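Why do we care about 3D structure at all? Because function follows from shape, and shape follows, mostly, from sequence. That is the central idea of this module. The next example makes it concrete: a single protein chain, its amino acid sequence, and then its structure expressed as tokens.
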Amino acid sequence: MSPVLCEILRSGFMINSSLVRRSHLVQSFSVVFLYWFYVFSEINCRFGISQAY
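And the structure:
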């Protein structure tokens, strides 16, 4: 393979792997946020914090 073609393939693979890593990061942040929101709403329902407003 020519060095130019090899370099193009390598850079494409690096871009693809960084996009996959970024989407995994976004997915894990959204899972953590949803879990935190669920826990907060459970605490809110049990102790009646919303009645203070």
